[in-house]
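Lab channel / #folding
Pinned by the channel admin:
"Please post every new chain as: sequence first, then the structure tokens as a reply. Keep commentary short and put observations after the output so the thread stays searchable."

First post following the new format, from NK:
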Amino acid sequence: MIVFVPGYDPSTYANLKIARLLNPSNCILLFENKATREELVNILEISKFPLFVMSHGISNAFKAQPDPKPTNRKEVQTLNQENIAFSNMDVTLLKQRTVYAFACNTAQELGEVAANFGSIWWGYSDTVPCPFDNPNPEVTTIFVDIFDFIKDNFTDPVSSEDIQIFLDKLKIKCENSAEQIDLIDAQEEFDDILAIYATLIQIWDRLRVWLPGQEQPEQHPHSSSPSLSWKIATRRV
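Reply from TO:
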């Protein structure tokens, strides 16, 4: 499996902290400075390994590690807008592989286009918060456990029925994790507990899975309605 995780701002550093603790067995790790478009494309061209991504995303792409380092605010803004790792123009590189992208909005245009070319795409319908970078190691362990579960299992479901079973297991896992957070908070209160709850909900709630040949992505039956922008995008298809 290819694991692609840049690290260059608070959100991506929080992702990277979790990714470094995931089980690395049988993985090609593209972390931080190696999480570039060039590195990713090179590996996609010579392999058919599944792809696991934790990064920033937009409707038609997910982002790479910035290069070169920006020196002022204008350059930061330009990098944020243009630093594309993979877009809907690159989907033939996937060679029908399965992708999980923990990246905002990537279940919109990008996921649908990838599925049209034969891939199974796990992405998000809207913005999704990063695994909150809490100093308590028990909180970190909870998020590592969730993303290890996703990484180790997202390639197995290949039908709507299998995906619904997976989504239900993920929902239960996130709900059980919220109960663990309650126990931790009872012993050691921390200010960011609402942000942690939000992340645990949205990991499953905003997850959408595009299968080849489907007009709409799979989602958990108890997931919330997508945002207005997603509804508009769906109407335009």
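NK: Residues 92 and 173 are 34 Å apart (CA to CA).
TO: also worth noting, Residues 160-187 form the longest helix (28 residues).
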